[in-house]
Design goal:
elongated; 130 residues; 87% helix; mainly alpha
Length: 130
């Protein structure tokens, strides 16, 4: 699915939402939910190519596989949390969306701890010992 199809789908779904929200708000929300999922899965196919490129660049740069896997997991968590927060915001549940965003940030921080530790250790190795 290319960008023109995605934008067209989004516009059509938005128009249907605006028409149906007065008649039946649950069906209108269901249309937005399904549209978001369809767009997410169509973009996921493109993301796999990006992940393969990042993996190959990490291999060429001699970066450990664990770090590259962690970076890719962080990117995935960010996108999934954003999708979930967006859907719950569309449903009018801003407080739940904020909790999803907070959970995503915490999981990202948890995954980043080994990378942060490695960077600090590398910096400390350059400093002279007293």
């Amino acid at each position: 699915m290319d960008i023109i199809q995605i934008v067209t789908l989004g516009i059509v779904a938005s128009i249907l939402y605006l028409i149906l929200k007065e008649i039946n708000s649950s069906i209108a929300f269901f249309i937005i939910l399904i549209t978001g999922i369809v767009i997410f899965f169509s973009v996921i196919q493109q993301i796999s190519g990006i992940f393969q490129l990042i993996q190959s660049l990490g291999t060429k740069a001699n970066v450990e596989g664990m770090y590259m896997d962690t970076i890719l997991k962080i990117i995935g968590i960010a996108y999934i949390a954003e999708l979930g927060a967006g859907i719950t915001k569309d449903a009018g549940l801003g407080s739940v969306a904020a909790k999803i965003e907070l959970a995503g940030k915490i999981f990202i921080l948890l995954l980043a701890v080994p990378i942060i530790s490695a960077v600090i250790e590398a910096i400390l190795s350059f400093l002279p010992t007293t």
